[in-house]
Amino acid sequence: MNISGFVVFFVSFVSCTFFAINASFADIHLPSVIGSNMVLQRDIPVPIWGWADPGEKVRVVLGSQDKTVTADRSGAWMVKLSPLSAGGPFELTISGKNTVKLTNVMAGEVWVCSGQSNMEMRVCHVNDAPNEVASALNRNIRLFQVTNDLSPDPQRDCEARWEECRPSTVYLFSAAAYFFGRELQRELNVPVGLIHSSWGGTTAETWMRIEGLKAYPELAGILDYWEPILKSRSPELLAYHRKTREWEEDVHHVLYAGKPILPQYVEPPKLPVDVTFAPSVPSWVYNGMIAPAVPFGIKGVIWYQGESNAGEAYQYRTLFQALIRDWRNAWGEGDFPFLFVQLANFGKRHDKPGESAWAELREAQFMTLSVSHTAMAVAADIGDAENVHPRNKQEVGRRLALGALSVAYGKGIVYSGPLYRSMTVKDGKVHLKFTDTGGGLVMKNNGVPSGFALAGADRAFTWAKAAVEGDEVVVWCDGITEPAAVRYAWEDNPKCTLYNKEGLPASPFRTDDWPGITREK
C-alpha cells in the first residue's frame, strides 16, 4: 500500500476531534447521548440524566409525562420516564434555571455496536459502497458515533451527537452496525438507534471496568502486567493519545478537502519509548467510550472483536464472558442480548492440517454461547484471505440481525448455522451431531466436503472424507481404523462446506480439547 493509501485507510478507522467536558454546571447540562434526533428504548423505564447546580429543581417533560427531580450535592440528577411505545417524533423539554428542548426524538430499539477495526470499518469501504451510501436515507435509523478516546477514569461525557441516517452521515459510520440496524428496521418497522463505539486494534480488556476484571482470578495476570501504567496513570500515553488525535483531525481535513498529502501527514506521532499501545490498557477505552453512554436505555449489544486477543484464546474463554457480564452489571438492565461476530477467515491456506491461533479464538467465542441471551454470527466463510477487513459487511449485519430477531425479539426463525454437539465412533467412523441444523445439514462445494481432519490417539491429523447422513456428519479416513478426534475448518483461513439448508455456515470446531457448553437460562 502506498503512503497516501495508508493514510486514507488509517483515517477511515478513527475519529478526529478532542473533547473536554466543562466541569461547571451553572446551566442544565446533558450528556451528548441525550440529545435531539435520539432514539429512546421502548417498553422500559427510560433514564434521563444530566447536571445542574446542587439542589436545583429539574423538570423533565415528554408528552403527558412530567417529572421533577432535585440535583444532588454534586449537581447530578436523573429521572426515569415511564415506558414508551415505538413512535415519534417527540419533543423532550428539560428545565431548571435554563431550558433545554430536544426535538425529533423517537422511541424504538437502541443497540450499542462495539469492538475493534472490523466493527469500525466504514460503509464507504464495503462492497458496492457507492450504491449503499447513496441509498442510505432513512429517518427511522439514527446514528451516534463516539469519538475514539481513553481515560484512566470513567468519563461522564463523550464527543458525539445523534444524526438521522442519510448518505452524508452513514458514509463514515460503522458498516456492520449500519447493515445490522437496516435489517432490524426493515423487519420490526420501528425506529432504530445505533450507538457506535469501537476502536481498531483494541483488546477486550480495555473495554472492561477494572472491577469486572478483578472478579475473575483467572484474569489477574492482565492486571499484573499493566500495574505500572495503571498506578502511574501514564501521562506519556495520554500525551501521545492527544497528539495522535490532533494529527488524525488534521489529516482528515486535508483528505476531505482533496488537498495533497504533505510530509507532516505521512506518519502519525510515535509511541513514547518503552510505552505499549495505549488502547490496550485495561479499562481505559471503556472509561472514555462506553462509560459516557451508561445507563442510556438499550436493547442490547453487537460486538466484533477478537483479532487482538488471538494467541491468548484460553484466557479469552474467561475474558470475553467476563466482559459481557461486566457490561450487563454496569447498565443494570439485566441480561440484555449480546450478539457477536466470530472471527472471519484470513491468511494463507495450508496443505496439511495444523494448529491455528485464530481457530482457537473462534473456539473461545463459540464457548461464549454458554452465557445467557447470546448469539454468534459465524463469518469464517465470508472473509478475505488477503485483507483482515473483509468488505462483505452486509452479510455480517444480516447474520447479526437474525440473532437479534430470535434472541431479543422472540422470532421463531433459524438464526445460526450448525453448532457441534457430540461425537461417537462406530465401525471406524466418527459420527458428529449438531444443534441448530434448521431444515437439515448440507454440504456446499458441489456436495464435496472439505475442511474435515481426522486423527487417532496420536493426535496426528490428516484430511478426511465426510458425508451427511440424516442429521449427522460421518467422517472417516482410510488410513485411520481407530479414530479419536475430528477437526473442522481448523485454520486461520478455512474452506467452509458444512451449512444448514437456510444457508448459514457451521462454526469451526474440534472434538479434542472441547469441554462442551451448557447454555445459561
Name the beta content range.
15-25%
Low-confidence stretches: 1-25
Helix content: 10-25%
> First CA to last CA: what distance?
48 Å
Average pLDDT taken over every residue: 91
Number of helices: 12
Shape: globular
Q: Based on helices, strands and strand pairing, what is the structural class?
A: alpha/beta
Main beta sheet: strand number and arrangement? 11 strands, mixed
Query: What is the CA-based Rg, rounded?
Result: 24 Å
DSSP strand count: 23
Short structural description:
With 521 residues, this protein is an alpha/beta fold.
Report on the architecture of this protein.
The chain has 521 residues and is α/β, with parallel strands linked by helices. The chain has a domain at 419-510. Helix content is 25%, strand content 25%. The protein is built from 12 helices and 23 strands. The chain has helices spanning 3-11, 117-120, 129-134, 167-170, 175-188, 210-214, 220-232, 235-256, 284-289, 313-331, 357-367, 393-407; strands spanning 39-41, 46-51, 57-62, 65-70, 76-81, 87-95, 99-115, 138-145, 162-165, 192-198, 300-304, 338-341, 374-377, 419-426, 429-435, 441-443, 452-455, 462-463, 465-469, 472-476, 485-488, 498-500, 509-510. Mean pLDDT is 91; it is low at 1-25.
